[in-house]
Amino acid sequence: MSNTVANLYADCTDDLGAPGAQVQVYDAIHAMITARNEVLRALPHKHRRMVGAWCFVDVFGPTDVDGQPGMVVPPHPHMGLQTVSWLVQGTVLHRDSIGTTALVEPGRVAVMSAGNGIAHSESSPANHGPVLHGAQLWVALPESARHGEHSFVLHEPAPVLDAAGLRARVFVGRLGSTLGSAAGTTALVGAELSPRSRMWPAGVVPLDPAFEHALVPLVGTVLVCGEEVHRGQAIYLGTDRNELALELSSDARVLLLGGVPFDEEIVMWWNFVARTHEEIERARTQWNAGGDPRFGEVSHYPGPERLRAPELPNLRLRPRGPR
């Protein structure tokens, strides 16, 4: 998914390193990704730059798209990151510059690795359902992988962990004894939590104490660490937790995101993750010029639209990292 806020880190502070257990609730940002599509952005945020290698979290919907075009995000580029698409309702048609066409559906995570560069589009298919709801997440690639090959994988349905009253669909990494259908380049976990029954909405999920974690409600409410967190909010939980006790509203579906704190400085601007201002400048020029083999073109996108990278600010983009 593309992004209309070019300088994503403009208002962010550097994250504190090795924070230990924390409880920090904050409101997501309302952001427009196209003229018609608004999202709730939980990362990056002035209160939290990253969670592990998770560097971008947008929640879209639930939106009534009955009789409407639905999602329309024309071809745009990425580099230095992986996109992770997770749907609650509806379907999204993915097309990319390596020739992929794939229908992303609820329960099956779609992971696109940009490596040194890729382009893709996302749109609702012609016969889409009446509601669109889900999350688009980005993972920053470490130095060892960010210049690698591009790829796209639509994974098999995410395995389920039943944990004392809660159900977790593990779509990335490992949660307890359940291994997700996708793995991160760095140690990560991504899961969707929901109540197993209306009569027993409370439970405990196992955590890796080396990871920092956050919860992002897609719908409903979660009560955790004495805080009630609603859709449109997020809660950062820090590290050093072996488990997490929580209570969900009967309709709740909540993202659990975690990972080993990311120890590299990065420059994140528009749809790019890099290490220097010059890398961003070069990628922007290459994409806007068109025809560069680095990103390629989504030649099977049914339309002439192509998102252009915005102007760079009149200042140097500086690397940001842990402190």
Features:
323 residues, Jelly Rolls, seven-stranded antiparallel sheet, single chain, 1 helix, eight-stranded antiparallel sheet, mainly beta, globular
Sequence-ordered SSE layout with sheet pairings:
Elements: E1 21-27, E2 29-32, E3 38-43, E4 54-64, E5 72-78, E6 81-89, E7 92-96, E8 101-104, E9 110-113, E10 118-123, E11 131-140, E12 151-154, E13 160-163, E14 166-175, E15 178-179, E16 188-195, E17 202-206, E18 212-219, E19 221-224, E20 227-230, E21 233-238, E22 243-248, E23 253-259, E24 267-269, E25 272-274, H1 277-289
Antiparallel strand pairs: 1-21, 2-3, 3-4, 4-11, 5-10, 6-9, 6-11, 7-8, 7-10, 9-12, 13-14, 14-15, 14-16, 16-23, 17-22, 18-21, 18-23, 19-20, 19-22, 24-25
How do you describe this structure in short?
This protein is mainly beta and 323 residues long.
| Secondary structure tally: strands | 25
Largest sheet: 8 strands, antiparallel
User: For the record, what CATH class applies?
Assistant: Mainly Beta
CATH hierarchy: architecture:
Sandwich
| Element-by-element helix/strand order | EEEEEEEEEEEEEEEEEEEEEEEEEH
Q: Strand pairing plus helix content: what structural class?
A: mainly beta
- CATH homology-level superfamily: Jelly Rolls
Terminal residue distance: 29 Å
Question: Per CATH, what is the topology?
Answer: Jelly Rolls
Domain module tally: 1
Q: Evaluate the radius of gyration.
A: 19 Å
